[in-house]
Amino acid sequence: MHEADFTLSAGPTLASSRVQQALGQPITFDYDPAFLAHFKATERLAAELFRTDKDVVLMQGEAVLGLEATARAVVRPGMRCLNLVSGVYAAWFGDWLRSYGAEVTELKVPYDEALEPAAVRAEIERMDAVDLVALVHSETPSGIENPLAEIAPIAKEAGALVYADVVSALGGTAVEIDDWGVDIAVAGCQKCLGGPPGVSLCVVGEDAWAAIDANPSAPRGTFVSLLDWRETWLASNGAKFPYTPSVSDVNGVHAAIAECLDHGLDEVIERHASAARACRAGVEAMGLELWPRSHDYAANCVTAIRCPEEVGVVETLAHIRDRYGVMLSGGYGELAEKVFRIGHMGSGSRSLYPLVSVSALARGLADLGVVVDVGAAAEATLESLSASGTVVTA
Ligand SMILES: *Cc1c(COP(=O)(O)O)cnc(C)c1O
Fold first, then answer.
1. Which of 13, 62, 201, 341 to mutate to test the pocket of ligand 1 (most atoms within 8 A of CB)?
2. Rounded to an integer, what distance in angstroms lies between the CA atom of residue 209 and that of residue 226?
3. Which protein residue's CA is at the shortest distance from atom 10 of ligand 1?
4. Distance separating alpha carbons of residues 269 and 52, to the nearest angstrom
5. Atom of ligand 1 nearest to the CA of 197
6. Which of 183, 230, 318, 369 lies in the 20 to 30 Å Cα band around 83?
């Protein structure tokens, strides 16, 4: 079977030709000085993207490795954690916190809404003390963006460590690690950066390292050990790896981040916002309902759409893929049969890709007998893109 002609999914997503070329470079010895320098340069570029002076650790597996590694390092039994839940990933993170022995308080909102800073402040005040506040910046499964910029300082002020899953936020929306006071953050490369799914970009600040040092159960001598990276790679100032890194993936990640920074991070973020606006306009014009209750907190990385009752998510996506060669996403976890998701990440946020995804969804639904306005969807998408101005960031 041939791959889809258009990969406009919730990630992994389209890679640019620059990223693909980097992935095709020779596989070098990891101790070739050229690769050591390249690895260090990739860390520096990632730090620039995170807008941080904190340590950046490139864990050699896609984002779930980074999330697990950082959580296991920092969370000790009895730790008082406030887990802020507005979606599937945050709920999953709570299960991890509990399994590491943390005392977990959960503040939950419906999955079609965003967290509210005032409610977070009130919950923190209700708790005697809080050691760690965890949240997901951009909930990819429901296309919702949480106000990390406002929540992180509230948590920091209360003396808590701030843990943020920014997997699908980095490169698609503003992420200001140092300004906002985020202590631990984990990003992936296969979302808004349009890189390969193979490396986790982890930020670990001084306060986080102190908590890790105070945690007797922080792992050592395993693939998920953050301490191994500190005690070999960071301690040797980039001369020694704890194990062989994924050479090709690192090359791909370097290219993806460099491409983003060359275009200008702010311009790339604006491009993601434009693509998201255009998709939302198209979806509403065709007569469907967005999953997020408000445009105010709809994410820049994916647009989540309520599936009409007459059809199923899986059959609709299969039809669109078979007839038009366009790969969109369904829901995930509890939302699996409820939503369609259009990805507009990395290269997929450029040019007329939103028109491709919106038209494919509209025409595909019409083929299956759903009453949607295909022409209005296309027109509204184009009008929105046109109103945004240049959407290629060359
Ligand atoms: C993609 C993603 C992850 C990592 O999950 P995978 O599906 O394994 O890539 C974690 N958190 C968020 C918010 C994500 O978007």
1. 62
2. 10
3. 167
4. 17
5. 9
6. 230
Tell me the pLDDT band of 393, cut-offs 50, 70 and 90: confident
38-60: burial string, b at 16+ Cβ within 10 Å, e else? bbeebbebbbebbebebbbbbbb
**CA dist list (Å): 357 to 191, 271, 275, 295, 353:** 17, 16, 11, 19, 6
Say how far apart CA 294 and CA 316 lie, in whole Å: 25
Q: Which of 213, 221, 189, 224 is nearest to 71 (CA)?
A: 224
Q: Length of the chain in residues, anyone?
A: 394
353-362 per-position pLDDT tens digit: 999 999 999 9
Closest of 14, 13, 42, 38 to residue 26, by C-alpha: 38
Please tell me the distance from the alpha carbon of residue 84 to that of residue 61, in angstroms, as a whole number. 25
pLDDT at 347 over 90: yes
Compute the distance from residue 63 Cα to the ligand 1 centre, in Å.
Answer: 6
Domains of the chain (ranges, CATH numbers): 6-12+264-388 (3.90.1150.10), 17-261 (3.40.640.10)
pLDDT at 46 over 70: yes
Residue with tokens 């106000």: 147
User: Which protein residue's CA is at the shortest distance from atom 8 of ligand 1?
Assistant: 64
pTM over 0.70, yes/no:
yes
CA dist 129 and 134 (Å) reads 15
Asked if 150 and 133 count as a contact pair (C-beta separation under 8 A), the reply is no
Cα four-point dihedral sign 312, 316, 322, 323:
positive
Query: Mean pLDDT throughout 325-331?
Result: 98
The finding on whether 71 has its CB within 6 A of some atom of ligand 1 is: no
69 Cβ inside 6 Å of ligand 1: no
